[in-house]
Every structure is written in structure tokens, then in C-alpha cells.
């Protein structure tokens, strides 16, 4: 039991890194399956290039969009935004900038799976070989100094690897180009991730240990919020059903207003003059009940604090969609 508890604690603490790792493994496995079982290069001068690019880029685009769909911050940003009054939008002129920053952060998270797909596909080489074999400019460059029929035979090379030494040499060169591009992409992603993480941590307004405390607080707040919401919803449902069947008038049951829900559901912004660990924390400590906590002078979106918007009442996202 102690070992199981240790594994569970590790999963809770490192759920983000483990999630990215699982997504990358599933994406790599899916690419290998597509390459082996589905992909068949048409070996046509007209179709090689679009066919290879479709398999290389379209699944990556689909995974990128799916990354947005499955991210809780996406729906925290979008839910109810079209129903807000024009006055609220005008008053919060900085909200557009904050939304753009959050969208950029969402894009970085959503790019994990598509970049994995493209990198694994380039290392495999099948998609690139097919696409490059149908590219006329690349064919002219590859066939420079070779037999006159090289350009005409290049589109057929992926389907006839044993056609001759020239075809095999062209395929080896195309695969080498693909693998070099794959490793360059992997190196660039790692360098960018290292720089982004280092800069965001360097610009963090709080210390390392406070960040750890912050994450612990959010986990506890989420658990308690879910438990209290479940209990409150159950009491309200019981009262309404009872009154329906017994034709009674329900007793008064205080629930948060639409404005209250909107405020605690809005995107978190950090203000150095105040120390709040979530929008709920900020809401209960507001000075006046009519005071809005959504936008205030000095508020800013801090990349390293992006984890604040992720927790919520933990309900299956797929079921909601």
C-alpha cells in the first residue's frame, strides 16, 4: 500500500509532465501505425507531394486543434464571453491583451502532440520521401549529375526501392534529409522550451517554495469546491423535487448569483499589491460585495502562474462536450 501511495503522490505532483509524456508516446505510436498500415505513396508525379504533405501536416493540425479543445483554460476563456455586455468589454480594454497572452500559452501547450507527430514522421522518413519525390525543384537538384531519366524515375522511387543503384541512392538521400530535419526540429523545440521555462521562472513574482505552496493550495481548493458544490447541488435538487411532488413552496436556498459565478470563473491576473492564490480567494476577500474582481489596474497575466486557471470543478470534459 505504501508503494501504491507513493506512485499516486508522484502522479498528483507530476501530472502535467506525465500527461505531456503520455500524449507524446500515444502520438508517436499513432504515427508509426499510420505509416505502416495506412500510408501508401501513390508514386505519381502529380500526387506524391500533396499526399505526403497531407499525412505529414493534416494530422498535426488536427492534434493541435484537439489540444485546444481538451484544455480547461480554453473553455474558461470562451464560456460566456459572447454574452457579456459591450460596456464590460469596453471597461476591460486590457482583457483582449490578457486573452491574447492566454491563447499563446494555450497554443504552446497544444503544440506538444503535433510537434511530436511531425518529428517522429520526419525521423521515419516515409512521408517526406513521398512528398519530396513529387517535388519538381527538389528533383532537379537531386538529379543534377545523374542519368537523364532520373527526374522521370524519382516519383517512382518510393515504390520501387530495388529498381537500381540510382533509385536506392536517391531514397537514402531523401531519408537522410528527413531525419536531419527531424532532429533539427527536436533540438529547436528543446531549446525553445528551455529558454521559455528559464525566462518565465526568472520573471516569476514569487519564490520557488511559494509556487509549490500555491499549487498545493489550488489542489485543496479544487477538492473542497467539488465536495461543497456536490453537497449544495444535492440539497437544492432534493428541495425542488420534494416541493414538486408535495406542491409546496421551496424554502429559501442561497446560491451564488450569475455575476458571482462569472467573477470566480474569469481568468486569473496577478497583482503585486495583493496576494491571492485564485479568483475564488480574490472574490471572498473583496472589500465590497458590489466590487468587481475581474479587472483592476496593475493586474497582469504571468506565464509561470498559468496553472492557476487550469483547476476547476473536476468533471469529465468529454462528457461536457
UniProtKB/TrEMBL annotation:
The keyword Transmembrane applies. Belongs to the CALHM family. The chain crosses the membrane at residues 20-39, 51-70, 180-199. The lineage of its organism: Eukaryota, Metazoa, Chordata, Craniata, Vertebrata. InterPro entries: CALHM. Coiled coil: none annotated. The gene is CALHM6. The keyword Flavoprotein does not apply. Keywords: Ion channel, Ion transport, Membrane, Transmembrane, Transmembrane helix, Transport. It is found in: Membrane. This is Calcium homeostasis modulator family member 6. GO terms for biological process: ATP export; monoatomic ion transmembrane transport; regulation of natural killer cell cytokine production. One of its GO terms (molecular function) is voltage-gated channel activity. GO terms for cellular component: immunological synapse. It is a multi-pass membrane protein.
